[in-house]
Write a structure and sequence with these properties.
The chain has 287 residues and is of the alpha/beta class. The chain is built from 10 helices and 12 strands. Helix 6 packs across helix 7. The radius of gyration is 23 Å and the shape is elongated. This is Probable nicotinate-nucleotide pyrophosphorylase [carboxylating]. Keywords: Glycosyltransferase, Pyridine nucleotide biosynthesis, Transferase. It catalyses: nicotinate beta-D-ribonucleotide + CO2 + diphosphate = quinolinate + 5-phospho-alpha-D-ribose 1-diphosphate + 2 H(+). Pathway: Cofactor biosynthesis; NAD(+) biosynthesis; nicotinate D-ribonucleotide from quinolinate: step 1/1.
């Protein structure tokens, strides 16, 4: 999970990059109205229903600009939030608050939108054994934040990157000359603790993957009936993952297939933001 230690170790560089994108020289707007330090306070307000995620990232963005910024949160990551709810107060140098506002909100809105979309899909899967997970279809340099947001919404994470596990997709299979050859090469090369997953598009490929000893079989863009047949064919000899164009509108129809996992790229590439804003900035006396 992202906590203050994780942010310092892994996320701080990414936050700095985002701030540098927004300020290449100076914040001309802020510097034109504030010529020195002036203590101020603003409120973080939620403008719609959803699940909040990214509050530590929001806070650290400001602290990189002003170490003395004080943030009082009235919610925590993973909480359901409501329109009009005050989520936090931010107090510190008003120059830092103004300069960091957009970057901090960009992180928070994006992450909260993903958490909200994920929570909606998890709810739609209630009553089934299907576990919802994300994919690597993330925004470049935002994967750490986006996969964390999926967890805050109640989903799970697929592999984080290419170093985590063997996933033999259609092009790997094509390059190796077939399912059996690809799995055999993976078993010979990968550490014995590394699971091997194979993406299949037909029942015959699923049969080949089972016979080759795949640990996980991904049913990619198969019809509903084909997926049910594949689950019967695999018969518990491997975990079964469903993948391919899964959305909030289509996920409920997958509940009766009998698979173990459903992976959904839409969690990170199509979730709308959750609208939050920083309002009512005003000077306050120091001390």
């Amino acid at each position: 999970m992202i906590d203050e230690v994780t942010i310092r170790i892994r996320a701080e560089e990414l936050i700095r990059m985002a701030l540098a994108e927004d300020v290449t020289g100076e914040d001309i707007s802020t510097n034109s109205v504030l010529h020195g330090r002036q203590e101020g306070e603003a409120e973080l307000l939620c403008k719609q229903e959803g699940v909040i995620a990214g509050l530590p990232v929001f806070a650290h963005t400001f602290r990189l600009l002003d170490e003395s910024v004080q943030i009082c949160f009235f919610a925590k990551d993973g909480d359901r939030v409501h329109k009009g709810q005050k989520l936090a107060t931010v107090r510190g140098d008003m120059r830092a608050i103004l300069t960091g506002e957009r970057t901090a909100l960009n992180f928070l809105q994006r992450m909260s939108g993903i958490a909200t979309y994920t929570a909606q899909m998890v709810q739609l899967l209630e009553g089934s054994k299907l576990r919802l997970v994300d994919t690597r279809k993330t925004t470049p340099n935002m994967r750490l934040f986006e996969k964390y947001a999926v967890r805050m919404g109640g989903g799970g994470n697929h592999r984080y990157n290419l170093s985590d596990a063997v996933l033999l997709k259609d092009n790997h299979i094509g390059a190796a000359g077939g399912v059996a050859q690809a799995v055999a090469r993976a078993k010979a090369y990968a550490p014995f603790i590394c699971k091997i997953e194979v993406e299949v598009e037909t029942l015959s490929m699923a049969q080949e993957a089972v016979e080759a000893g795949a640990d996980i079989i991904m049913l990619d863009n198969m019809s509903h009936d084909e997926m049910k047949q594949a689950v019967r064919l695999i018969d518990g000899r491997a975990l079964v993952e469903i993948s391919g164009n899964v959305t909030r509108e289509s996920v409920s129809a997958l509940k009766d297939i009998g698979a173990d996992v459903v992976s959904c790229g839409a969690l990170t590439h199509s979730a709308p933001i959750l609208d939050v804003s920083l309002k009512n900035l005003h000077p306050v006396s120091a001390g």
